[in-house]
Amino acid sequence: xxxxxxxxxxxxxxxxxxxxxxxxxxxxxxxxxxxxxxxxxxxxxxxxxxxxxxxxxxxxxxxxxxxxxxxxxxxxxxxxxxxxxxxxxxxxxxxxxxxxxxxxxxxxxxxxxxxxxxxxxxxxxxxxxxxxxxxxxxxxxxxxxxxxxxxxxxxxxxxxxxxxxxxxxxxxxxxxxxxxxxxxxxxxxxxxxxxxxxxxxxxxxxxxxxxxxxxxxxxxxxxxxxxxxxxxxxxxxxxxxxxxxxxxxxxxxxxxxxxxxxxxxxxxxxxxxxxxxxxxxxxxxxxxxxxxxxxxxxxxxxxxxxxxxxxxxxxxxxxxxxxxxxxxxxxxxxxxxxxxxxxxxxxxxxxxxxxxxxxxxxxxxxxxxxxxxxxxxxxxxxxxxxxxxxxxxxxxxxxxxxxxxxxxxxxxxxxxxxxxxxxxxxxxxxxxxxxxxxxxxxxxxxxxxxxxxxxxxxxxxxxxxxxxxxxxxxxxxxxxxxxxxx
Length: 486
Fold this sequence. Notes:
This protein folds into 3 domains: 4-87, Uridine Diphospho-n-acetylenolpyruvylglucosamine Reductase, domain 2; 94-209, Uridine Diphospho-n-acetylenolpyruvylglucosamine Reductase, domain 3, CATH 3.30.465; 214-455, Vanillyl-alcohol Oxidase, Chain A, domain 3. With 486 residues, the protein is of the alpha+beta class. It has helices spanning 25-28, 49-61, 111-119, 135-140, 148-151, 179-191, 230-239, 278-284, 291-294, 336-352, 354-357, 370-374, 406-421, 428-431, 459-472, 481-484, and strands spanning 15-17, 42-45, 65-69, 83-87, 94-97, 102-106, 123-124, 158-164, 170-173, 197-204, 206-207, 217-225, 247-255, 266-274, 299-306, 323-324, 327-331, 361-366, 392-397, 399-400. The protein is 28% helix and 22% strand. The strands form 5 sheets. Strands 15-12-14-13-18-19-17 form a 7-stranded antiparallel β-sheet. Strands 5-6-10-8-9 form a 5-stranded antiparallel β-sheet. A hairpin with a 5-residue loop joins strand 8 (158-164) and strand 9.
């Protein structure tokens, strides 16, 4: 146990907490998931950059790791008695530069703050599909967003990163950085965990009015299918799985809530969004109006929604606590049979594992690839190039309430990825001019316990991550998945 009196002198606004010997981990740290969550040696909430520098130097001198925190959604980052937990909640500014078309946010800003600030002024930027996720962590993991088809990934639109590295130095990095700074900037874009403390990031931002949506609102359509109509839902998703850049199609498998007429019943929800006019959206999603489809739904409705509410559907999944992990794969296509098989496996998992039945879910999201392909930078950044041409993002989220259900939960997620990954050896990487590993199917934002990192980065990228870690953090002040394991 640390002695609070041995810590360096921090600013008056810095909050320092040393967990008591009898405190439980969840009483000390609130995190989206309790997986890999122990009690940290200390919790230090810095109020300025000098507090961060002092924390880094103290950790380096005492054999501790510093774990920077924004949204607390990093289920794969271990928290234990050998780390200092560093919430960046004081770094919460969001500044929009309308003239430059950019937004700068602090290292502790969560997505909700960026959406509210920008949408209130008629702008948008790359954001994740959860408003509770930290923006810095989102960018470091690659930054896949609903706007992939239009503008590419978040890492394609980073203008500046302000970082404090393991030696306590403050740097501002950008796409025009040179030498070792350029290598550091590139690794932060897609494999950025464990190279320093990010105090701010600047992203491009765009005017909502330029999307030419009716009344600046996204056209939406929702179809809710009973489990007996999974074939119809899968067929419709299959028809829409290669959307144009403005069309977003998401198929979600969830259980009916306790308040529903049949609590716990499997539900299949297909959600469509179109970043343009309702007329164009109706044409792009014409298959969803076919009577052979709508006759099998419980709900089939169209409407509009402001971009400020783009993540409202995922809000129930933002709750902290329990045990959760995220398993992901990027696929070029999914057959109807594959989708049905994944659904049936999810249903069976719930029936066999009551501790995870009501909460575990599966998402199949189809997005345009035009923006990702146009913004490829010849592999300089660390989002695998071969994924840029794949339309479908699959995310299996096992969510269990008691620790003993971990084995069954992880087995379901692994089997689900095996089901959807079957068609991946399709030459798609070569078709798009990519040669750096079409075996890569995952990405850094969704690491999970024990993941084979060669499914996340090609081998030569893993070697580069290890070399850069040795250069910028030789004594391991920060946790890194490649060097420290997952």
